[in-house]
Structures are given as structure tokens and as C-alpha cells.
UniProtKB/TrEMBL annotation:
This is DUF4097 family beta strand repeat-containing protein. It holds the Pfam family DUF4097. It comes from Enterococcus hulanensis. Residues 39-267 form the DUF4097 domain. It comes from the Bacteria. InterPro entries: Toastrack_DUF4097 (IPR025164).
Length: 271
């Protein structure tokens, strides 16, 4: 009988402890708003999905969740706005997902003023849309990356183990990288572009390179369309245990490199 009573007491204590953990890690919705000009936006986060959207008007809004384990420093100095996740000290209540309500960060920023955007997170989807920039630097891990309707001079975008979706973009120099996942590339106009993945298919539709295009994957296919004529390109095409419809030659004014393994290369040139 004593053992049963002791067991019930221990179970009750555990339930009270768990309830306390959930209570203390409750999330609240927070919003930061500023009408000051933001030319540079820097986001340093972790384990968090982030959506950044260019808007009309003159106000920047940051919507985020706050809890015992999720806190941010938000600072604006001159024309630079920064959002930095604070480091947790002690036991992390999110370890067992207690109190979790799918948090994410959403930033709406006037697109007419922003020139430089730098975002770093981990284990969370990273999305940017409707922006005109000088420089775009994006980094996440183990998650999808989406860039839509963006015009920039220089772009460096990197994730891992997650799909990359790019559409309606113009840029001078762009580097895009993921691993163990596919790339979907649609309606991109650029001077120089590099698109690298591994163990994932590369789908392309209406890519329009002015100088050079590099496509590289492994153990998968590269299929799609490029604007122009095949004779416009000095072409290097390599695959293994599969076929390529491209002919290697050095006569074109533009550079085209397509490399894969164990997958077909099938690219059509369109007007």
C-alpha cells in the first residue's frame, strides 16, 4: 500500500512539474513597428521559419513570438535595423516542445528603401518576396528556401537538405546552393548564375543568362528550358550512366555548364 501511495505522489509531482513548465513557457504575440528608414536589415535567428516581404508605405513591422526560451534584441542604428535571437541560459523548455505553437518571424518592410538584406537562421523555412536590393544574403539549414519576385545585384543563398524554389527574379551575380533536395527555377534573368545541389533534380523554365549559367547536381536529372539559341553557348555537359542532349563545344559567347551523375540532361532552347 505504501508503494502505491508513493507512486501516486511521484506521478502527481511529475504532472505538476510538467504543467509548470508549460505555463512558464507560454508564448505571446509581439510586434515591433518603426517608420524610420531601413536601408539594411540583419536577421540572426535559429530554429525558426522566417518570412520577409517587401511592401508599399513607410513602416517596417516585425511580428514574432515571445516566450521564456524565445527572446529577441531589436535595434535600429542610423539606417540599419537588426533582429537578433538571445541565447538561452539554463534548461531549454522547448526541448520537449512544451508550449510550442509553431512560432515564426514575419517581417514586412518598405521595398523602396531597403538595399541590403542579410538573414541567417537554422532548421526553418526561409522565404523572401517582392524586394529590390543591392545585396541579398540568405542562409538556413535543413529546410526549404523560397525567393520570389526579387531584383538584386548580388545574391548568395544557401540551405541544406531542403528544396530551393526561385521564381520571377533578376540579378547580376547569383549563387544558390542546397543538398539532398531538388531545385525549381522559373523565369530567372541574370548575368551570371550558379545553381548547385546534390541527390536532387534540377527543373528549369525560361532561364535567361546574359553571360554564364552553371547547373550541378548528382544522382538525378537536369531538365528544362533556356532562352536563346544553343549556338550562343560555349557548352560543357557531363553525366554518367545516362544521356545528355547537349553537345559540347567552345564557340558561343556565353558559358553553359551542366554536370550531374546517374541522371539524364535534357535542355531545350526557346525564343
Amino acid at each position: 500500500m505504501k508503494k502505491i501511495i508513493i507512486g501516486l505522489i511521484l506521478v502527481g509531482a511529475a504532472l505538476v512539474s510538467m504543467s509548470s513548465m508549460i505555463f512558464h513557457n507560454r508564448m505571446s504575440n509581439e510586434t515591433f513597428t518603426t517608420s524610420k528608414t531601413v536601408k539594411e536589415l540583419i536577421v540572426d535567428d535559429r530554429n525558426m521559419p522566417i518570412d520577409i516581404v517587401g511592401v508599399s508605405g513607410n513602416k517596417t513591422r516585425i511580428n514574432y513570438k515571445k516566450s521564456r526560451d524565445i527572446k529577441y534584441n531589436i535595434k535600429q542604428t542610423s539606417n540599419t535595423l537588426s533582429l537578433e535571437r538571445k541565447r538561452s541560459i539554463g534548461f531549454n523548455f522547448n526541448f520537449f516542445n512544451f508550449g510550442k505553437r509553431d512560432p515564426k518571424v514575419t517581417i514586412e518592410i518598405p521595398k523602396s528603401k531597403l538595399k541590403d538584406l542579410q538573414v541567417e537562421t537554422s532548421n526553418g523555412k526561409l522565404s523572401t518576396e517582392n524586394l529590390t536590393l543591392d545585396n541579398l544574403d540568405l542562409e538556413t539549414t535543413n529546410s526549404k528556401m523560397i525567393i520570389n519576385n526579387v531584383d538584386a545585384h548580388s545574391i548568395d543563398a544557401e540551405t541544406s537538405n531542403g528544396k530551393v524554389e526561385l521564381s520571377k527574379m533578376t540579378f547580376d551575380d547569383g549563387s544558390f546552393e542546397t543538398s539532398n533536395s531538388k531545385m525549381d527555377l522559373q523565369n530567372l534573368e541574370f548575368s551570371e548564375g550558379e545553381f548547385h545541389t546534390s541527390n536532387g533534380k534540377i527543373n528549369l523554365m525560361n532561364l535567361n543568362p546574359a553571360k554564364s549559367l552553371s547547373l550541378e547536381t548528382s544522382n538525378s536529372e537536369v531538365h528544362g528550358t533556356i532562352k536563346g539559341k544553343e549556338e550562343d553557348f560555349s557548352t560543357v555537359s557531363k553525366t554518367s550512366n545516362a544521356t545528355s542532349n547537349l553537345t559540347n563545344h567552345e564557340d558561343g559567347s556565353k558559358e553553359l555548364e551542366v554536370i550531374t551523375s546517374n541522371g539524364d540532361i535534357e535542355i531545350a532552347f526557346v525564343r
